[in-house]
Amino acid sequence: MESNNLHQITDNIELYIGNALNMNIEKKVNMIYFDPPFNSNRDYKLNSTNSLGFSDKWTDKEYEEFISTNIDKLYDILEKDGTLFFHISSSCMYIPERILRNKFKFVEPIFWKKCRSKNNVKKKLGSVMDIIWKCNKISKSKFNLVTQAKDKKYLENSFKNKDDVGNYAMGHLVTEKTKKGYMYEVDIGDRKFNPPSGWRIKEEVLKDLIQKNRVHLPKKKNANLYKKIYLHENPGKPCTDLWDDIHSISQGSEIRKYPTAKPVKLLERLIKISTNENDCVYDPMCGSGTTADACHRLNRRCILNDSNEDVVSIIENRIN
Ligand SMILES: C[S@@+](CC[C@H](N)C(=O)[O-])C[C@H]1O[C@@H](n2cnc3c(N)ncnc32)[C@H](O)[C@@H]1O
Fold it and tell me: Whole-model pTM?
């Protein structure tokens, strides 16, 4: 039985109000997004005339105790193959990192470049990074590979060649000189290709590519063969641990509904990586309910909690 007060937002979204430590979730969840106060020594307000917000002033000892007790609780709620994402600014990452590494076997940072510059900072380096610690209990946790848009400069420079099918980049077929690949010769018309360090792929695979006109034939006499990588078949690159393609709310098109609200695109990516449809996501300090918004779009179940009663109407308006 949950002791915090329940507000049913939709059939799939439950919102509780109260201290996250008082939550009692009976069934384990597949993903937790934990975005607590950052120990930033500030009080957060939506704007100077608005009372919406929360306080973030602690001693380091108090903050350590706060994070540690919450992490202990969240660890027990998380499925064995589930993922906990812990969101923190890079300048406040030290205390949470120590706690997370003591608790979880696998802890990897995702670097979120939330803005391009900090023009108002004059006496220190502008901090543009948040860290999202991806924490897992086991190595084979649930994981879906998602793509990130390719870099614009890379697209312009790499997909310059064109044939009847479309623009393409050149993928290596010949093994690096320091290694030895598959050794064989191929003929294309009256030209023979037999690189001294060998090929990266087997003979039958290369012959199939040649037959399908998927090999770039060089004009120069002794140049290498390359595989054609078509632009229309490669809209994205496998997601890396540097996320520089999602803007913070202040720099993007989303309207801020709450101080420290995160962009919904960020939550969508975290959810896609770690869960499947109908899985359950828990956000113990949900603020404006960005996690619920993303779950709603992606058809995941969602349990939210926050100690601030103001978030009820914000989340109700946002989802319904
Ligand atoms: C950084 S904000 C979360 C922002 C949210 N991710 C969003 O996109 O809007 C942190 C939230 O933690 C809440 N909070 C602080 N202490 C709490 C506690 N002990 N239990 C539950 N919520 C708490 C605050 O009210 C605040 O809404």
Answer: 0.83
